[in-house]
TrEMBL record:
Provenance organism: Opisthorchis viverrini (Southeast Asian liver fluke)
Keyword Nucleus found: yes
Lyase as UniProt keyword: no
Protein name per its UniProtKB record: 60S ribosome subunit biogenesis protein NIP7 homolog
GO CC term, one of those recorded: nucleolus
Origin: domain of life: Eukaryota
Cited function: Required for proper 34S pre-rRNA processing and 60S ribosome subunit assembly.
Length: 249
């Protein structure tokens, strides 16, 4: 059999021919190989002759669903945990999965949950666990006890669809970015009808999302509470990109 071709070389996509013996008869088929950052990601061969190519890809080391053993879709309980956590901040997770630019999915890799386009996840599946560091966006991870913790990296996806928001004053903004809770004295505004212990996205006075947390008080309760009372429990903030850089990805 002739050596397989390389899928991308200098911006081009050549396809090499290979000879397969089947029942004493030689059949020509196309075979390609993906190279990602200089790493071969396995042979990809289409199962039909050159004139009648079908759409089935055979990738050595890949499971039946086309997913590498090092990464996989979320199990039912894992998916429920992720959806439950996200639904504390947004109404419906379907707005994240069924988007105008394509279908998106959640994948698990090394205890981390990645949010990525379905087509990108398929390409990432061809890379071995040793060489695959990240793909899409890591929105959180599962702890050793099996609990899911959402990361600040999910903020860009939560903010546009947030059910409840709070706005903090400029002095309180810096304190929140250092990981501190929001006090009543630092609260500028809160969404109407925000229930107690509901998820909230924290905004600064320029309407820029800077993190998210849990409402310690409802909208009604915050009106008559003491200035030094905590009104929002800190969950995540943009300062973590500096403080916790190594653990986010």
């Amino acid at each position: 059999m002739s050596p397989p071709g390389v899928c991308w070389v200098n911006g081009k996509k050549p396809v090499c021919q290979a000879l397969f013996k089947q029942g004493g008869k030689e059949i020509k088929r196309r075979e390609t190989r993906f190279v990602v950052h200089g790493l071969e990601a396995g042979n990809h061969s289409r199962g039909g002759p050159l004139d009648t190519l079908n759409e089935v890809l055979f990738v050595p080391g890949i499971t039946v669903n086309g997913v590498h053993p090092s990464m996989r879709p979320l199990k039912e309980k894992e998916h429920e945990q992720v959806v439950s956590k996200l639904c504390k901040y947004i109404k419906d997770v379907s707005v994240l999965l069924d988007r105008d630019d394509g279908s998106y999915t959640f994948m698990l890799h090394r205890d981390r949950v990645f949010y990525a386009k379905a087509s990108l996840a398929k390409h990432a599946a061809t890379i071995t666990r040793k060489h695959l560091l990240s793909f899409g966006t890591c929105i959180g991870r599962f702890s050793k006890t099996g609990k899911f913790r959402i990361h600040v990296t999910a903020l860009d996806f939560l903010a546009p669809y947030a059910k409840h928001r709070v706005w903090v004053k400029t002095p309180a903004e810096q304190q929140f970015l250092y990981g501190q809770h929001v006090l009543k004295s630092g609260l500028a505004r809160i969404s109407e009808d925000t229930p107690q212990y509901s998820g909230v996205v924290v905004m600064n006075m320029n309407d820029v999302p800077i993190g998210f947390g849990v409402a310690a008080k409802s909208t009604l309760q915050t009106k008559n509470t003491d200035p030094m009372t905590i009104v929002v429990f800190h969950q995540a903030d943009l300062g973590e990109y500096i403080r916790s850089e190594d653990s986010l990805i």
